[in-house]
């Protein structure tokens, strides 16, 4: 049974993955539903809605569509003026409002480092559940090594999802905020054929590699992988550059989760 908080929380998790942001904004039901949620009475729903909008606004082409969505800017203004809300909610509402209302700028003029820092701020301080880490993996040269890496990461307790970019030997991992990056490096090093460094940007906006020390780091492992994971020949994990996620939306006989959520959002006008 869907409820407002579960729907918007799942939508926020989907929006946290960059490859989903364009699809969500283009969907005819999701943006109108998020605008409705900006008038919700539950602070948790409000916070999750604002976090979702903040994620979606990280993709510059989404901004005009979001700004022109009926009721979006007015609802954000009302939220900023609403009494009795937490500082996190009002500050995030102001941030989203400023982003959508700012004059259009070339993408190159928007510092990626600043966008990432703001995004991580509300993920870690407000909902304190998850963070994203980008790794450069030395030795990630083939699908065989990728398979070893997948198996290693799936066993780490606290890993939520991961996406590979084989051409650049990168892996973006979404993890619980209390899981250390060194734990990921330790799990990868245990394969004996790969090692990991963290990819971050310096003050100049240039990518740099931070060495990770996997030695002596105790890695908490999942007790067992679920019995319902797909077999190797059917597993999307084996397809190059596909995302692995425990929380990703799955299709069923009545349509995919996004369609169901959009339907819920647009049909729910009374809280």
Explain what you see.
Strand 4 (195-201) and strand 5 (207-211) form a beta hairpin. The longest helix has 16 residues, at 112-127. Strands 5-4-1-3-2-6 form a six-stranded antiparallel sheet. It has eleven helices and six strands. It has helices at residues 4-15, 21-26, 30-37, 43-56, 62-68, 72-81, 87-101, 112-127, 143-154, 181-189, 257-267; strands at 130-138, 159-165, 170-176, 195-201, 207-211, 243-245. 44% of the residues lie in helices and 14% in strands. It starts with a helix and ends with a helix. It is α+β, with helices and mostly antiparallel strands. Helix 3 crosses helix 11 (257-267).
List the helices and strands and how they pair.
Blueprint: H1 4-15, H2 21-26, H3 30-37, H4 43-56, H5 62-68, H6 72-81, H7 87-101, H8 112-127, E1 130-138, H9 143-154, E2 159-165, E3 170-176, H10 181-189, E4 195-201, E5 207-211, E6 243-245, H11 257-267
Antiparallel strand pairs: 1-3, 1-4, 2-3, 2-6, 4-5
Give descriptors for this structure.
single chain, 271 residues, alpha+beta, six-stranded antiparallel β-sheet, 11 helices, 14% strand, elongated
Q: Which spans have pLDDT < 50 for at least 5 consecutive residues?
A: 112-128, 225-242, 246-255
The proportion of strand residues reads 5-15%
pLDDT averaged over residues: 76
SS-derived structural category? alpha+beta
